[in-house]
Design a protein that fits this description.
alpha/beta; Rossmann fold; nine-stranded mixed beta sheet; globular
Length: 364
């Protein structure tokens, strides 16, 4: 494999004064992955720090991992799966390219490697790099996913410009946004399609009801995901004064969310209901939330495969069915696959063979 020597440095946040100056997808640093973040099916693995842009086009730094399968490089280079991970937290030190991610997500990426795809996997800007992670900011995440492909190819020219995006949960949301902007944002690449698993959609309709006294309605993790969204929105839109809308306990947890990973945040939340995060209603945030987390229902110019587990309690199936109905009403072409026995994480394994068959056809 050829690693571009001019980009080699010790992996980690850059130290020079203005690292975000430069084109999106350009590499700031690249180095070997820590063994904790390596995948068993990878012949090589690298951690990169690269430039990307936020929701409004301002420069940010992100990091991520590049994995290359074993064997000779195909004549047209390794086709690329750009993977967008699910929720692991907002704090530095949680980023998968440093500490590894969810085991099931690692196994999923490994299956793509063993099928002959290179895998690039963003951490998202602000997770292990300067600034806050804009949790569920779809446009920012989409930029980061696309720019991860650019960065991977800049570091390793053996990667093909042919690529698809795949993601779970938070990453499924990111995959849809990536699918919506990929060809216009990076016309020099050859984007072929998207695999979006358990994507949270229509949350801009749900979250505004999360004022004082509102329960979780049986949605697993709703308090945590709402908290993370409020933290991200507070950073993206300081004019909204999100902290003033939070209860004392909500403000305490918002601070904690930027210091520890998702498992510890969930432990500290315990059985707390979403309404306990707030001191007053937030229904006036609906327009801001629509801009921040809303998922487009039209404008997709490449195939979109959506996978949903029927027993998912984190992203309940009715939300995904509603989104599918909205896509259909907008005359958007898509492929929805339902998996009767799959839960939120289980949809990764349940959907893989279907996704692989679709993706193989798209990149051939």
């Amino acid at each position: 494999m050829v690693l571009v020597a001019m980009t080699v440095a010790v992996a980690g946040p850059p130290a020079h004064a203005d690292p975000v100056t430069g084109p999106p997808g350009s590499v700031v640093e690249v180095g070997q992955l820590d063994p904790a973040a390596m995948l068993p099916g990878a012949a090589e693995g690298y951690r990169v720090v690269y430039r990307t842009t936020d929701h409004h086009g301002a420069g940010r730094l992100s990091s991520g991992a590049v994995y290359v399968p074993p064997g000779p490089v195909p004549d047209r280079g390794w086709p690329v799966v750009s993977y967008a991970h699910g929720t692991i937290g907002l704090a530095d030190g949680c980023e998968p390219s440093t500490v590894g991610g969810l085991a099931e997500e690692g196994a999923y990426m490994d299956r793509w490697l063993r099928r002959g795809y290179a895998v690039v996997a963003t951490d998202y800007a602000g997770l292990g790099t300067p600034g806050e992670l804009a949790y569920l900011d779809g446009v920012a995440a989409g930029h980061g996913v696309v720019d991860m492909v650019r960065a991977g190819r800049a570091a390793m020219p053996e990667l093909s410009p042919r690529w698809v995006v795949a993601g779970l949960s938070q990453g499924g949301h990111a995959a849809l946004h990536t699918a919506h902007l990929a060809t216009s944002y990076a016309p020099e690449l050859d984007y072929r399609g998207a695999v979006s698993l358990a994507p949270p959609t229509n949350l801009e309709q749900v979250f505004p009801f999360a004022g004082p006294g509102v329960p979780n309605f049986g949605v697993a993790g709703l308090t945590k995901f709402t908290l993370f969204t409020m933290v991200g929105l507070a950073d993206a839109r300081p004019d909204l004064d999100i902290p003033s809308r939070l209860s004392p306990r909500g403000r305490e947890l918002a601070t904690l969310a930027t210091q520890v990973c998702t498992v510890e945040v969930g432990r500290r939340i315990g059985k707390m209901q979403v309404g306990e995060l707030f001191s007053r209603p937030i229904d006036d945030l609906r327009p801001a939330l629509a801009d921040y987390i809303g998922v487009p229902t039209f404008g997709y110019d490449r195939p979109v495969l959506i996978g949903q587990g029927a027993v998912d309690l984190v992203v309940p199936m009715p939300l995904t069915l509603l989104f599918a109905q909205q896509l259909a009403s907008a005359n958007t072409r898509f492929d929805l696959r339902l998996y009767p026995s799959a839960d939120h994480i289980g949809v990764l394994a349940a959907s893989f063979d279907d996704a692989a068959a679709v993706v193989d056809g798209l990149v051939s």
